[in-house]
């Protein structure tokens, strides 16, 4: 039985508490919320325009674009000494890694070195991070070769393959610069933390598998990157005669590098040992091969190696080619992956030193360095995590260490490349392999599992997608699951029954706060969804009606007389949502239950007024807080019972 | 300058207010929230299992499936009289409409009549709506012909076309029944109200354009449904000699039908006039053509018309055909559109009479009627809005009126079909045209525009998609925009600065409530998003930091000392969200600002504890309400200033 007739409620409510009525009036008479157009323009302005940087002289403007003009004037000799040492350490790690990553990208080795010359110099002029080490990185190299070799085979037509790589790099740089200029940095956010952890882990294993070719000295290998094809290719080639010398050489130097790293970790002062080990391995193994003429006995060597300055590649960009659309697509994916890595690296070291990076400015700097790179025979460069850590440990002070590194690489390109002719490929493979463990973060994967099972699904989705499918499939799986998660939360929101916390006026979820008590005759339900829309309105309506049935079954002493809908969480409502509320109201009325609405938010109350829903339920049934509704109803009940 | 050192805050907070601390403890010690698996099983159970209907005898079970067993026992002669009259009225409207819709579906006219026999009879046994009029409808007929004629041309190979229609109908019925059995009714919700309004409007215009063929007596017409192709075809055929007699005949009867409808609307008692007008038009025009032999002078007539009982079509279903996949796809789309219409019709009339329909049971009924229909030469049937309105006005009491209608149609199939040989096609076109205005709801489109501009975008997206593209494109556009809207709200949530309402302890958005006042030194920010995740975490972080800058610029007297993050709206957080909070905390600390968290919800506080974020900011900085934080800070400030 409903405790009170509806008319009574309406009539007696007004005089009860003028303050409560006043609060409700504040709510009902709140000003018009900003219109959609207003919101859109504000949002675009906030997105596109820089935050604080308004106006200023031409000097300020130039300093904004080229931060070096600002800090360069205070640059001191003591800083240069540190930067010089860090730059040399960096170069010794960078030269072998660059050659290795170039082979991973299926390019001739000198392109790796070229990429360690021009982009770091451009970044030094435009970038704001002080520690980041710019150059080729493993994941982007893999990404490029995995996607481009589907269009042009690097072994059949290496010239066109290389030209396409430059074109992709140009597009990647252009996208990166545009993202920065239009402040679209949020696009990088669409790869969630969990997706990156999974993707990097999968990519590391795929890269490692690719190195089996070099390490085992296999001639014929698959162009697919998935684990099944690669293992299949390895098993097949092991049936043919193969030369174990490559494997022995590669493994011994891999063990050497890993031991130096272990020592470097134990004793922080010996950080230069693991940084120097790769270069030392290259020199030593090259000497061994040269002196023993091992290349005649089956050891595979680099052979092709063109030295000299970066040649221009302006005329190699293929904008007229039929593959230009695909190149742009690959460029976009590379741009996002490269930015994700660079910004993650830059931010983590900036926060270690306690300064802040402007993501959008960084994107412009990285974009320009890749555009210029694509015109000077470089492929896509970004910030390398392992080398940035070395740079940081080596005590770099500013981005000058990148300049020192670039110049050192340039010098070695001019003078030392002839020596690299005899470098065994197995050594390059072992250098790449030694850099991979840093990409696999099992610890973080475990943390993600602990915190959020669906996030973990994103993580392993990306991981297995990369491993058994391809890099694009891995990324696609991660993005689809991530957005499906958002939609799932929206279409299946929860509702909670609220009770009053003891000795307070606070109403809370009775399952979360077992000490909260329900109020007899009043059912308070909070809709836990940011939007009440077509996708969840019917579901929420059914859930609420179900709660009424449950409550009546549970508390047989007094039936539900008032349903309080706490709308605090609902930021937006659409026409389907309003229709569902109207249906809910009708159905409650037919069961003799009053509907009261508590704390509808700005847009919601505005739309409910426009749709005449407020008129339908009566303006006196809209309250600012749940407390007010309960208070009003309890007083009414008392006076109602008193008059009985 | 920060007003108080951080240590001070930590030490002095505890003894301030034991009650406040106790409330925070309730929050921090709230029990483990239900795990993901638990939530999933609960959600599946709630979705799949019926709500109240648990157990019962075999009779109850049968009554659940065949509601006729329940109400049939109390069925009275007086009710039958009403149902009989309503059924006859319905049949008189249904016969001409069915023939017309069959031609719209590019089937021979008898199939429309067959569809008005078997499905209504099955529905009468299984359905719970009392008013719905079952049979072929315009939109589904259009949908079928538009999609199936892309696979098989109905003029070149009518036999295979018809067989494919039955196969599609079988799939549509199966999907509908499965949706109902697995309680997947929410799938129908994915077409939002706005999308349906736009889609129906577009479909009505497309159907109208298709009728130009019949009305103008054109021989060669396009198979495309978009407005450009149709108008192009019409203009081209008008260049050829054409016979205006068809047009004159069709238009005169169209005007007659529209006049009767106008009269029927003015005088509710004459509702039977518009209902009878189509049948009267068919009879009169057929007689005219028969007597004047007008078919020899260019009037196009129906000609093919096979009478008799519904033949079996069991052996016509093509499960082995290569098109079976496409048939299933078309079946799925038809199933959803047909269900949307049937449930909308059923619900609106049920709420007029004050009873409730179980959407899932209705789906099973409609699904079975279409499965049986597909075996007895029927194409996809559903509830027709226009005929249901006629049925309601004619005073139907139960679904028996559908039975009367079906039997009447059956009798006319057996005895009267020879007479329909001479029916002019232009009349069928004018009958379809006369039913279209009911599908275009300009008023509702205007309401949607007023309420929600983005919803209106969905509406016109569907409208123009159907008009200029095809029915599938229209649906796709509507669904994509609808879900993009949900994602957009999630990735660009708002944050609000809160102030205290005068003479209360309530904290509200200061833009919505201009009377609310900010508290000096404390910045209270509420995150208006249901989830703090990868897609919005960085955005929210930047917004909050921007608010701090703004606040410090605005209030130069006292800098922000404490930032209160009101998390009441945030129902869920992922690893990216937690990382963003950690970054926010670090950045605030570096600016000498305290971070306090108010009212983190169940899952959120649990994850913040797991991720050790609570330990990082200190458990004493987590509060149940904003009021508590402000209270704690103000007291601290007073004692702090006192000791200075």
From TrEMBL, chains A, B:
<feature type="transmembrane region" description="Helical">
    <location>
        <begin position="330"/>
        <end position="350"/>
    </location>
</feature>
<dbReference type="InterPro" id="IPR002645">
    <property type="entry name" value="STAS_dom"/>
</dbReference>
<feature type="transmembrane region" description="Helical">
    <location>
        <begin position="419"/>
        <end position="440"/>
    </location>
</feature>
<dbReference type="Pfam" id="PF00916">
    <property type="entry name" value="Sulfate_transp"/>
</dbReference>
<keyword id="KW-0472">Membrane</keyword>
<dbReference type="InterPro" id="IPR001902">
    <property type="entry name" value="SLC26A/SulP_fam"/>
</dbReference>
<dbReference type="Pfam" id="PF01740">
    <property type="entry name" value="STAS"/>
</dbReference>
<feature type="transmembrane region" description="Helical">
    <location>
        <begin position="388"/>
        <end position="412"/>
    </location>
</feature>
<dbReference type="GO" id="GO:0016020">
    <property type="term" value="C:membrane"/>
</dbReference>
<feature type="transmembrane region" description="Helical">
    <location>
        <begin position="164"/>
        <end position="182"/>
    </location>
</feature>
<dbReference type="InterPro" id="IPR036513">
    <property type="entry name" value="STAS_dom_sf"/>
</dbReference>
<dbReference type="InterPro" id="IPR011547">
    <property type="entry name" value="SLC26A/SulP_dom"/>
</dbReference>
<feature type="transmembrane region" description="Helical">
    <location>
        <begin position="362"/>
        <end position="382"/>
    </location>
</feature>
<protein>
    <submittedName>
        <fullName>Sulfate transporter 2.1</fullName>
    </submittedName>
</protein>
<feature type="transmembrane region" description="Helical">
    <location>
        <begin position="194"/>
        <end position="212"/>
    </location>
</feature>
<keyword id="KW-0813">Transport</keyword>
<feature type="transmembrane region" description="Helical">
    <location>
        <begin position="245"/>
        <end position="263"/>
    </location>
</feature>
<feature type="transmembrane region" description="Helical">
    <location>
        <begin position="270"/>
        <end position="291"/>
    </location>
</feature>
<keyword id="KW-0812">Transmembrane</keyword>
<feature type="domain" description="STAS">
    <location>
        <begin position="529"/>
        <end position="633"/>
    </location>
</feature>
<dbReference type="InterPro" id="IPR018045">
    <property type="entry name" value="S04_transporter_CS"/>
</dbReference>
<keyword id="KW-1133">Transmembrane helix</keyword>
<feature type="transmembrane region" description="Helical">
    <location>
        <begin position="132"/>
        <end position="152"/>
    </location>
</feature>
<feature type="transmembrane region" description="Helical">
    <location>
        <begin position="460"/>
        <end position="484"/>
    </location>
</feature>
């Amino acid at each position: 039985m409903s405790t009170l007739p509806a008319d009574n409620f309406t009539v007696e409510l007004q005089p009860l508490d003028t303050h409560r009525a006043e609060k409700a009036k504040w709510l009902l008479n709140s000003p018009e919320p900003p219109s959609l157009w207003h919101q859109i323009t504000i949002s675009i302005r906030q997105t596109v325009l820089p935050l604080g940087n308004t106006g200023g002289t031409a000097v300020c403007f130039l300093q904004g674009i080229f931060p070096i003009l600002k800090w360069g004037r205070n640059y001191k000799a003591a800083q240069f000494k540190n930067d010089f040492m860090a730059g040399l350490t960096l170069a010794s790690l960078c030269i072998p890694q660059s050659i290795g990553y170039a082979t991973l990208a299926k390019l001739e080795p000198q392109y790796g070195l070229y990429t360690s010359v021009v982009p770091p110099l451009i970044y030094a002029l435009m970038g704001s991070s002080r520690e980041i080490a710019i150059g080729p990185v493993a994941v982007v190299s893999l990404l490029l070769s995995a996607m481009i070799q589907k269009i042009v085979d690097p072994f059949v037509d290496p010239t066109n393959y290389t030209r396409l790589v430059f074109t992709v790099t140009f597009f990647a740089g252009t996208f990166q610069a545009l993202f920065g200029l239009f402040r679209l940095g949020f696009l990088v956010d669409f790869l969630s933390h969990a997706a990156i952890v999974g993707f990097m882990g999968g990519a590391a294993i795929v890269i490692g598998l690719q190195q089996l070719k070099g390490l085992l000295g296999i001639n014929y290998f698959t162009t697919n990157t998935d684990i099944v094809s690669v293992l299949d290719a390895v098993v097949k080639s092991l049936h043919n005669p193969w030369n174990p010398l490559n494997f022995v050489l590669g493994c011994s130097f891999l063990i050497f590098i890993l031991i130096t790293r272990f020592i470097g970790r134990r004793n922080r002062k010996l950080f230069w040992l693991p940084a120097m080990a790769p270069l030392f391995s290259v020199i030593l193994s090259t000497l061994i091969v040269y002196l023993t003429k091992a290349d005649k006995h089956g050891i595979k060597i680099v052979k092709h190696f063109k030295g000299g300055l970066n040649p221009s590649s302006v005329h190699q960009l293929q904008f007229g080619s039929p593959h230009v659309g695909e190149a742009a697509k690959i460029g976009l994916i590379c741009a996002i992956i490269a930015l994700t890595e660079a910004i993650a690296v830059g931010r983590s070291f900036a926060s270690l030193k306690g300064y802040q990076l402007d993501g959008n400015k960084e994107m412009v700097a990285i974009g320009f360095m890749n555009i210029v790179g694509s015109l000077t025979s470089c492929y896509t460069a970004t910030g390398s995590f392992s080398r940035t850590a070395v740079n940081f440990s080596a005590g770099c002070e500013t981005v000058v260490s990148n300049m020192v590194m670039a110049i050192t690489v340039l010098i070695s390109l001019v003078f030392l490349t002839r020596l690299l002719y005899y470098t065994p490929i197995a050594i390059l493979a072992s250098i790449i392999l030694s850099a991979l463990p840093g990409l696999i973060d099992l610890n973080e994967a475990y943390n993600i599992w602990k915190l959020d099972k669906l996030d973990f699904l994103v993580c392993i989705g990306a991981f297995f997608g990369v491993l058994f499918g391809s890099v694009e499939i891995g990324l696609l799986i991660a993005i689809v699951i991530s957005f499906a998660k958002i939609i799932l939360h929206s279409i299946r929101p929860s509702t909670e029954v609220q009770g009053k916390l003891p000795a307070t006026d606070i109403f809370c979820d009775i399952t979360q706060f077992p000490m909260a008590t329900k109020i007899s005759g009043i059912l308070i339900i909070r809709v836990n969804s940011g939007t009440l829309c077509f996708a969840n309105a019917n579901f929420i309506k059914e859930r609420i009606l179900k709660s009424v049935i449950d409550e009546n079954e549970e508390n047989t002493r007094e039936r539900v007389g008032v349903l309080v809908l706490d709308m605090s969480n609902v930021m937006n409502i659409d026409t389907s949502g309003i229709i569902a509320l109207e249906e809910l109201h009708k159905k409650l009325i037919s069961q003799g239950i009053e509907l009261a609405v508590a704390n509808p938010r700005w847009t919601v109350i505005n739309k409910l007024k426009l749709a005449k829903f407020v008129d339908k339920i009566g303006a006196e049934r809209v309250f600012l807080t749940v407390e007010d509704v309960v208070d009003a109803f309890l007083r009414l009940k008392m006076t109602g019972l008193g008059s009985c």
